[in-house]
Fold Leucine-rich repeat-containing protein.
Amino acid sequence: MNHHRRIILPIPLYMIIAIICSPHLKLAGIEFTSPKVPYQISNLSNLQTLDLASSSVVIKNTEWLSRLSSLKYLNLSYIDLSESISLLNNAVRLPSIVELHLVNCLLPNHTAKSFLSPVKNSSNSFAVLDLDSNYLPSYAIYPWLFQFNGSLTDINLSDNQLFGTIPEALGTMRNLQTLDLTNNGLEGCIPSSFSNLVSLRELRLPGNNLNQDLPSLFGYLPKRSLQVMDLYGNQISGSLPDFTKFTALKELYLGLNQLNGSFPEEFEKKSNLLILDLADNRLNGLLPDLSAFGSLLELYFERNLLNGTLAEKLAPMSNLKSLGASSNFFQGIISETHVTNLSSLVYLDLSYNSLVINISAQWSPSFQLDIISLSSCKLGDSFPGWLRTQKNFSVLDVSNTGIIDSIPSWFWESLNQGIRYLNLSSNQIHGTVPDLMSGNLPIIDMSSNNFTGYIPLFPLDTVTLMLNDNMFSGSISSLCNLTILSHLDLSKNKLSGKLPDCWKNFDRMTILNLEFNEFTGSIPDSIGALVYVSMMSMRSNSLTGELPLSLNNCTSLRLLDLGENQLAGKIPEWFGESLSTLVVLSLPSNQFNETLPTNLCSLDRLQILDLSLNKISGNIPKCLENISGMTARSPDSTIEYNAIGLERTRLTYRARYVFKALLQWKGRQSEYQKTLGLVVSIDLSSNKLSGEIPSEITSLLALVALNLSRNSLTGPIPQDIGQLRRLDFLDLSRNDLLQSFDVSSYAGNPTLCGVPLPNRCLGDDEPRSSKDKDVTEEEFDDNLINKDFYVSIVVGFAIGFWGLCGSLILKDSWRHAYFRLFDTVRDRILVTMETSFARIQRRTSLK
Ligand SMILES: *[C@@H]1O[C@H](CO)[C@@H](O)[C@H](O)[C@H]1NC(C)=O
Ligand SMILES: *[C@@H]1O[C@H](CO)[C@@H](O)[C@H](O)[C@H]1NC(C)=O
Ligand SMILES: *[C@@H]1O[C@H](CO)[C@@H](O)[C@H](O)[C@H]1NC(C)=O
Ligand SMILES: *[C@@H]1O[C@H](CO)[C@@H](O)[C@H](O)[C@H]1NC(C)=O
Ligand SMILES: *[C@@H]1O[C@H](CO)[C@@H](O)[C@H](O)[C@H]1NC(C)=O
Ligand SMILES: *[C@@H]1O[C@H](CO)[C@@H](O)[C@H](O)[C@H]1NC(C)=O
């Protein structure tokens, strides 16, 4: 990202040059009135610095460059140079050139022969090369690069397309001080020649696939010079060697690798390390005595397997600003004495351990925290009183911390302007919530508590609001002003009254969950304004009337659950056309009647169709075979969404919501979440369907569950039904079907069990004899089909994960708000959607 402001220059450039009259010309980000490189520049033979980064110049020919004989520093970053074939070579021929910055310039790669050919008469002074984000392949870069073997000191080739191993020859660049190969596809080992790089201060290799063993990798690196070693996000294995051998080391990043084993027992030297990142590995055992690392400012070891106590290890770390310890197995009590010396602390993440935090309400700590993340620590019954002393936090997560209390009024009153994230979920907090109008609080999670009373006013820039699983009551019209709301979860409360007709305010909404409340009346027309909503559930309310026609504007819907209401009318014809992205359509237990719309089959991504317990009549449409979401051999993988990039994840406040679906499963209502992506099911049971079961249904090869019971279906059971090999259950009971197949039609289903097959189902009761006098015909029917007649799929359900990242569409000012949050602790906070958005922008646009 560049932050240059664009300035439009109405006056001719020569005037500016005349005014500046200096050997340094910095026009970065400037919008020129004429886009051509002003030819006046080419006569400035005294010019030493030329910075046109992100400006609007268009550069095609590069002859003007060759006359700038004094030029030392040239920056043309973020300018499209795809047609300036010889620019790079002309630049390195400038006799005085030292630094060349060409970030994200769409440099031509192999198509430009000149890039490959040796550069005659190149400058001996050329030292700093920055070709970040040009997507150049290894075979174009390497031969060219090694021509400057003797002179280069700093190389940045981040975000290019370097694959294969790191070339040995890099190790012959004796003057190399910084080498940045971030985000390429490099694999294998660090070449042993690297031990010759005795001036190397910074080595940055994050986001590659290096898979060396860490002790051997350390053996190849110069010990005295290295100050920054960044190997984040590789496949590096082995245990952690004594890194105090690197005597100058200040920053060491080994996060997101495959490290295992425990910490070295002792360290050779006292270290001057400032930043140590070991997060996301599999390190186990105890933390060592950290007194050799008294200089540390940032220490991260989240998501490892470390155990033992943490508290007394912290005491000597009096310079510590950031501590990330979440998701380990630490135990014990952390009390005031352990943290009293940590007066610089701003970032504290102890969440997801078994820690008890025992700090008295009266204590006044010496630190002012910015990030307070204590999820799953035990804080005691009462709301932590010491928080009263913290005036500057932007993140507070005290979810699942055992609080059984109401929230003191000083807390609400003290919520400061800078707070961005508040998570109070999964406690037993009771009482009402006052209006929270001040401040900007984009992410609020108060779910799973005992809050009562009306839904208060929330800050206008709330993006995520989760109040589910509480006892809020009354209407929800107080939310109508939250116009940038994206995720709203009010499920499982006692909310009542009509749904407000203000949905047109929420055009950024992606998740709307109102299920299990007491809403009445019809679904308002304005619901159609939610054009980005991808999940909408109003299950289990008392909604009446027909589905509003406007719903067909919600064309991003992937899950629609309106089950357990009193909705009526025909299932609309437009479903198939407008809601073509639907994956889950769940309308059970309503009063829907008439026949099924034929274009239902146009919902070709559909995986779950539940229309049970309605009054639908007519035939089952033959076109079901056209629903490719159900015919595919494995569920459509395009519905899996994984937004994990190479960004460093510290605390992740993602705009992520995992789909849930309630399904009738072998007679029980179950919630499917993680495995939902694997469930492919049709439930049309308990309706008034008649006619035959279309044989086309047997081509829905991905079906895991099919329930057509309790209808008036007649005719034979389709012969090929045994082809549905994934079927976990098939319920055809309480129809008037003829048994038309023999046992061999199930031969392809080795795990299928139950009558009429020879295999008995594991864990089943003795099958009841049909001669048993007490069994009514109906019961017998049920027993035959429901209970005894299913396959148990074991494999599929163990794996699989299906999350949904709603597309968070935010204002520009928003993005910056988040980035400001980043800056507070050295880019440590990540809002996944945000950064990936920025990243995509960076890749696709030349700003
Ligand atoms: C640049 O210098 C050349 C030769 O010294 C001269 O002919 C030309 O007019 C100059 N161009 C500008 C724009 O000053
Ligand atoms: C290289 O420099 C020599 C002498 O300075 C000159 O004769 C020759 O033309 C130059 N070559 C190129 C390709 O510029
Ligand atoms: C706190 O710091 C002081 C001075 O730096 C030191 O004497 C004391 O031992 C430290 N306390 C703990 C518990 O380490
Ligand atoms: C709040 O905390 C809970 C428990 O730690 C977590 O599951 C949930 O995702 C958090 N909410 C948000 C919005 O981040
Ligand atoms: C099913 O798809 C086939 C091929 O795409 C098409 O010809 C047929 O008309 C479709 N059937 C229905 C009922 O939509
Ligand atoms: C099929 O649906 C009916 C309700 O319509 C339910 O009672 C029955 O248990 C279901 N069958 C199975 C196997 O889940």
